[in-house]
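Section 5: illustrative case.
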């Protein structure tokens, strides 16, 4: 059986065997290398070890049977193709070993370059490079070969054998210091030969063994290290942040090395077919002459803009532009590309559909439609609600005297203000205390990931648009300014100097990720252009801002394509009006509890303390006109659109002062001999109403059934308001919603009383009042068929439904222990944030089906927080709800996601 499996499983694919659609198996990098190979682009030959092999290795801790032989066969064919043998002492083939998962995880997993070098092949490499290296500028072939060897020991030591990276960095810094230079390129062949000796000692000290000289052993260990890096801490954190499933595994690409560090006619770079920050058309990227690939991404040396390559090597530049155009046409999307030039010969090392900012995603989608590459439906899938939400963040208001102290590269847009911190740990610490922080580093590396997640923004003094900080920040939608080289950052001293001033840890700075400007102190913020557009203060037809024009275009298409209606949760006229400007088509949840707060508390106290029917009726009668006025305002703002008003839900004692505070007040007053009769009565009431589990106590419909007249007063206020607005020429469409119903009898009782009042108040006004219920108790979902007999609509209260389905206290658990559940992968995201399809979602599905079976055409909506969550919106579309309801700022997001859910496509995934 096992032997049979060995034969059947193909774990290794030559580049010529794959294609871009095999990302699951070959990872993004491998699939795209295969695609470029098949397009005839100059890709160094190589092969990909599949994610299946990685998964098998991670499951058993051993390479799966047959893998070693398949690698051997592909290696031999690679050697034949290149006319060189791995680690040959005279003319060695060297390979890179690179990770590549289905979804890009920049810098999170491992890469080892120059595999195949050892004490003997380093001489062979020098010999062969002798004919190639430009001795004057590069320091000669020997220098190149020894530099390659020291890089191998460093990378291999750090990534394969867990030798602390700083050890190597200290050693090279020491070598430079001894030489009186800060530039790697000043180290000559002899210096590097000595450095290799030092590196080997470091390696032996930390691993208890010599640096492996056998090339195939190097290769196998490097492959294993790449497999294992799938579960490295930073990769796990990154996946969680980006919601990438934990069980995909990574592929491994073994690629013939080409060298960008052979002299000034060699180099390496990164290119984008459009600007990944703004979406503008043009040539974007960074180039670094005489360097190896990782140097660009690491931001270790400052790069030059890609355009300068035209001057440095016009032929390669033209060729690159040609390939960029071909790739864009082929992928029908923004591509990013890594390339290397080895002595004037261009090699394509990677391409993929490139990560981009939220603004760029919209602008590029619009451009691609204009260029005829995609249609508007596909454009909907090139953007998403999370990106739209980002575009609604505020930006700096610079109409005051704010002078920037430095200007770097606007690497990831947004306006971030916070206290400066210099380490990832400190960022996490302060953020946990609720402080906004800006993480300041010379450059970031993958170990800074936690701090980057915790920070509001990232500021680095080195690195270009493609440095680690920039790429990761863009992926996360986090504001980032990189390469602000006026900043003299001193991490150990926790300070930086700029423009003659010192900024210490804890000082506040403001960074603008669009312009790259850095300000000391707090710069005030203002609404973004996109919010101004939604607010109606920026006319999309008149502005020349390509982003606003495209957002308008895409939203217009989204509205035409979606099936779900989008309402808002709003309980004031102001919120209702804003939500309407944002496109809300009614109110799905008007919570009435705030109407019992403020100066109305006194009336609520009277209601609770009422000793007689008369006293209670008086208190309710006093509340009635106040409530009516609230509803009039809301019905006016939402004229012609449905407004779902929920009867009061929280336990009444929430409107009284807290027990401890009252007890102290009473004791103090008694001490002073004051009259405390009223406070004593209140205290007694609070004690009487105290509940161990208030969330499961006297709230919602139970209140209405226990406190005579309370719901009746609210029903009357709603209906009178609707009649008044309608008689005044408006059009009110109230829907009265009963909370926390678990049994149809509860609803029937409330409904019978409400209908009498409604009939009496409505008269001949023509106002129609619907009566429905929330479905937020699991029993209600399970008996939805019965409840639908008494309900004209259902609205799913997924906050309570999640709380009661899981038995999680919604106010406590997220801060208390969800981190552990996330760590264990019990769920990938809090079920309070995104609907748990299998459990809570199943309840929704059952209730929708059984409700509609009992009452065909039953109106169904959702008003829990999930109504504005992109993934959940897709679920509600699938289940067939009529509408989602969410907070005003989420309304545009829900409009867009509803359309994305409605439009099927096979488009590419921008991740
Ligand atoms: C819900 O439970 O989902 C809901 C909308 O009601 P509330 O959040 O007010 O309990
Ligand atoms: Mg609720």
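Designed sequence:
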């Amino acid at each position: 059986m096992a032997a049979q499996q060995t034969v059947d499983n193909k774990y290794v694919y030559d580049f010529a065997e794959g294609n871009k659609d095999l990302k699951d198996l070959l990872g993004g990098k491998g699939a795209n290398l295969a695609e470029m190979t098949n397009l005839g682009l100059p890709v160094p030959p190589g092969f990909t070890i599949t994610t299946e092999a990685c998964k098998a290795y991670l499951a058993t801790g051993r390479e799966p049977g047959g893998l070693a032989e398949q690698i051997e066969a592909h290696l031999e064919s690679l050697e034949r193709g290149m006319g060189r043998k791995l680690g040959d002492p005279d003319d060695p083939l060297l390979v890179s070993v690179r990770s590549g998962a289905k979804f890009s995880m920049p810098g999170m997993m491992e890469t080892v370059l120059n595999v195949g070098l050892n004490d003997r092949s380093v001489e062979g490499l020098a010999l062969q490079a002798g004919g190639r290296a430009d001795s004057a500028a590069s320091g000669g072939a020997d220098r190149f070969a020894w530099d390659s060897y020291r890089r191998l020991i460093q990378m291999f030591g750090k990534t394969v054998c867990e030798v602390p990276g700083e050890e190597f960095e200290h050693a090279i810094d020491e070598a430079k210091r001894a030489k009186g230079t800060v530039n790697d390129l000043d180290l000559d062949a002899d210096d590097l030969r000595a450095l290799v000796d030092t590196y080997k000692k470091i390696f032996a000290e930390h691993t208890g063994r010599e640096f492996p000289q056998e090339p195939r052993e190097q290769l196998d260990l490097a492959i294993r290290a790449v497999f294992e890096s799938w579960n490295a801490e930073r990769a796990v954190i990154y996946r969680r942040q980006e919601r990438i499933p934990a069980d995909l595994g990574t592929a491994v690409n073994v690629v013939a090395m080409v060298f960008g560090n052979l002299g000034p006619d060699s180099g390496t770079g990164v290119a984008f077919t459009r600007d990944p920050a703004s979406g503008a058309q043009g040539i974007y990227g960074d180039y670094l002459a005489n360097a190896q690939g990782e140097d660009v991404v690491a931001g270790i040396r400052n790069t030059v803009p890609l355009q300068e390559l035209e001057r440095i090597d016009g032929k390669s530049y033209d060729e690159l532009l040609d390939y960029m155009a071909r790739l864009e046409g082929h992928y029908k999307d923004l591509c990013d590309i890594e390339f290397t030039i080895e002595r004037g010969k261009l090699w394509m090392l990677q391409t993929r559909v490139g990560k981009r900012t939220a603004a760029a995603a919209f602008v590029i989608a619009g451009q691609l439609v204009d260029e005829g590459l995609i249609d508007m439906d596909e454009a909907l899938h090139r953007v998403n609600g999370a990106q739209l939400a980002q575009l609604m963040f505020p930006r700096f208001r610079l109409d005051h005297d704010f002078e920037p102290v430095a200007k770097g590269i606007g690497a990831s847009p947004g306006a971030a203000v916070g206290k400066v911190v210099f380490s990832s740990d400190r960022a996490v610490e302060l953020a946990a205390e609720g402080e906004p922080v800006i993480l300041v580093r010379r450059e970031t590396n993958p170990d800074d990931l936690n701090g980057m997640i915790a920070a509001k923004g990232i500021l680095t003094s080195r690195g270009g648009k493609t440095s680690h900080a920039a790429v990761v920040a863009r992926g996360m939608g986090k504001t980032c300014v990189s390469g602000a080289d006026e900043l003299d950052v001193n991490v150990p001293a926790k300070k930086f100097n700029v423009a003659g001033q010192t900024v210490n840890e804890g000082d506040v700075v403001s960074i603008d990720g669009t312009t790259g400007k850095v300000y000391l102190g707090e710069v005030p913020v203002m609404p973004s252009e996109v919010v101004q557009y939604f607010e109606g203060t920026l006319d999309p037809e008149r502005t020349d801002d390509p982003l606003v024009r495209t957002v308008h275009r895409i939203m217009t298409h989204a509205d035409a394509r979606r099936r779900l209606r989008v309402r808002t949760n709003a309980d004031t006229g102001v919120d209702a009006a804003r939500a309407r400007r944002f496109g809300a088509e009614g109110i799905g949840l008007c919570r009435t509890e705030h109407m019992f707060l403020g100066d109305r508390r006194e009336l609520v106290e009277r209601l609770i303390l009422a000793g007689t029917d008369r006293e209670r009726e008086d208190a309710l009668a006093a509340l009635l006109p106040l409530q009516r006025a609230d509803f009039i305002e809301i019905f006016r703002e939402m004229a012609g659109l449905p407004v779902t008003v929920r009867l009061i839900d929280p336990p009444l004692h929430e409107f009284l002062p807290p027990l401890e505070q009252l007890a102290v007040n009473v004791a103090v007053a008694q001490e002073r001999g004051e009259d405390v009769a009223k406070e004593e009565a209140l205290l007694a009431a609070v004690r009487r109403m105290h509940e161990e589990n208030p969330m499961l106590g006297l709230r919602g419909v139970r209140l209405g059934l226990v406190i005579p007249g309370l719901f009746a007063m609210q029903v009357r206020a709603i209906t009178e308001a609707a009649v008044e607005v309608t008689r005044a020429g408006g059009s009110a469409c109230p829907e009265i919603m009963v909370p926390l119903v678990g049994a149809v009898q509860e609803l029937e009782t409330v409904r019978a009383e409400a209908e009498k009042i409604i009939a009496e108040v409505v008269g001949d006004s023509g106002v129609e009042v619907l009566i429905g219920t929330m479905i937020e108790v699991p029993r209600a979902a399970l008996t939805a068929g019965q409840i639908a007999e008494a309900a004209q609509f259902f609205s799913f209260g997924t906050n309570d439904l999640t709380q009661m389905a899981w038995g999680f206290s919604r106010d406590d658990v997220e801060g208390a222990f969800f981190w552990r559940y996330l760590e264990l992968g019990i769920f990938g995201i809090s079920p309070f944030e995104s609907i748990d399809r299998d459990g809570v979602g199943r309840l929704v599905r059952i209730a929708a089906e059984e409700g509609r079976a009992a009452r065909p055409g039953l109106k169904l909506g959702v008003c829990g927080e999930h109504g504005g969550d992109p993934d959940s919106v897709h679920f509600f579309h699938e289940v067939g709800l009529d509408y989602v309801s969410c907070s005003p700022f989420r309304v545009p997001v829900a409009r867009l996601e509803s359309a994305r859910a409605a439009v099927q496509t096979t488009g590419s995934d921008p991740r």
